[in-house]
Amino acid sequence: MAEMRVMAVGVESGAARPVLLLQEAGGDHRLLPVWIGVAEANAITVEQHHVSLPRPMTHQLIGDVVDALGRRVEQVRIIEIRDNIFYAELILDQKTKVSALRGSRTRHTSLTAVIRCLRPSGMNATTRPPRWRRCQLRELGPGCLFRHARRGFGATERRLNAANTYMYVFDGGRDVLLGGLMRYMAERCGAWQVGDDPTGGEVEFRIFIPDGPDPGIASIRVAGSFQGWDFPGGLPLARQPHPEGTLWTARTGRLDAGFYEYKYAVDFDDGHPRIVSDPCTRYGGFDNDNAAVVVGGSPRAANVVRPLAHGRRTLQDLNVYELMIDDFTSEYRAARAPLDAVVDRLDYLRDLGFNAILFMPWTAWSGNHPDWGYAPFQYFSVEARYAHDLLAPAEKLSWLKRLISECHDRDIHVIMDGVFNHVSVDFPYKALYRDPTVCPYTSQVFGGYFPGLQDLDFDQQCTRDLIRDVCHYWIDTFGIDGIRFDNTVNFYVAGNIHGLPELLADVRSVVDPEFSTTLEHLDLTAVEVTEATGATSFWDNSLYGLTFGALWDGRMDQRLLNALNNRRWLRPADKLPTLYLTNHDHSNVAWQAGARANAGAIGGWFKTQPYAIALFTSTAVPLVPNGQEFGEDHFLPEDDQNTGRRVIPRPLRWKLSEDRIGAALRHLYGTLGRLRLEHPALRSAQMYPEVWEEWQTQFSPVGVGVDVARQAAVYHRWATLPGGEVENVVVALNFSDAEQWLSVPFPLDGGWTDLLGQQTFDVTGNRRELPVPSNWGRILRRD
Question: From the DSSP assignment, how many helices (H) and strands (E) are in the chain?
Answer without folding.
Answer: 19, 42
